[in-house]
């Protein structure tokens, strides 16, 4: 089964990265820079603090992606939805922080300081006119069913073993990366590409079957 989570607005974490001018080029899961760029907020941190925040940002981003994938994972299917939502919120607060104080970032003081200062403007920033939400019920759902059947046959596995998640981000260009086995982050353009989307679905399914650490994929572009 495939879960797809998309956002047509820039992720606040990417706003923070770009507004501060953080150098995250060594992080495989760091998407292309936002276009247009957000306002310059580099004055919020001194040079040494920006270096610290650049080193702290990747973990924050990876945890954010993993939490998002788990939140939309159909395997969760909680019996007590309210309790599950509370547990998820607590985990999110602990791992990546929640407004207004982002206490979960206590071990990353430079990043935390900037995130607290920028969060409100980050979630309100709308550089483009609103675009329609991604329609998962279209061709991608049909692709997922066809790819799942192919993967089951190729690997001789049961349907419940074929699972994966795609996280569609509002970033420019054609970009994707395997975050961890079974979880792919990509630009919305990838999901709208009739040739590429099935490739990503297959990689999500098969990488989960393979397990192991997530490698850097050739589909990453900056």
What would you say this structure looks like, in words?
This protein is α/β, with parallel strands linked by helices and 222 residues long. The chain has a domain of 114 residues. 45% of the residues lie in helices and 9% in strands. The chain is built from 7 helices and 4 strands. A 4-stranded mixed beta sheet has the order 1-2-4-3. The longest helix has 25 residues. The chain is globular. The two termini are 30 Å apart.
User: How helix-rich are the residues, as a percent range?
Assistant: 40-55%
Structural class: alpha/beta
User: Rounded to an integer, what's the Rg over CA atoms?
Assistant: 18 Å
Average of per-residue pLDDT values: 89
Overall geometry comes to: globular
DSSP E strands, number = 4
Tell me what portion of residues adopts beta-strand conformation. Answer: 5-15%
- The separation of the N and C termini measures 30 Å
Which stretches of 5+ consecutive residues score pLDDT under 50? 213-222
Strand order of the largest sheet: 1-2-4-3
Number of helices: 7
Main β-sheet: number of strands, strand sense, barrel status? Answer: 4 strands, mixed
The secondary-structure element order is EHHHHHEEEHH
């Amino acid at each position: 089964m495939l879960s797809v989570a998309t956002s047509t607005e820039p992720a606040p974490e990417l706003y923070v990265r770009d507004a501060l001018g953080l150098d995250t080029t060594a992080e495989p899961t760091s998407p292309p820079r936002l276009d247009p760029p957000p306002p310059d907020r580099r004055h919020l941190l001194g040079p040494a603090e920006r270096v610290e925040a650049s080193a702290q940002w990747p973990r924050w981003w990876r945890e954010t992606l993993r939490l998002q994938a788990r939140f939309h994972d159909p395997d969760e299917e909680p019996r007590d939805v309210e309790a599950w939502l509370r547990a998820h919120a607590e985990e999110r607060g602990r791992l990546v922080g929640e407004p207004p104080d982002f206490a979960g970032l206590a071990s990353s003081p430079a990043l935390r300081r900037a995130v607290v200062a920028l969060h409100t403007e980050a979630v309100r920033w709308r550089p483009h006119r609103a675009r329609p939400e991604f329609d998962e019920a279209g061709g991608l759902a049909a692709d997922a069913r066809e790819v799942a059947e192919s993967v089951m046959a190729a690997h001789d596995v049961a349907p419940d073993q074929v699972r994966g998640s795609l996280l569609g981000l509002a970033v420019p260009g054609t970009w994707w990366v395997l975050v961890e086995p079974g979880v792919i982050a990509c630009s919305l353009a990838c999901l709208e590409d009739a040739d590429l989307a099935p490739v990503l679905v297959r990689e999500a399914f098969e990488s989960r079957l393979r397990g192991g650490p997530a490698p850097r994929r050739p589909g990453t572009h900056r």
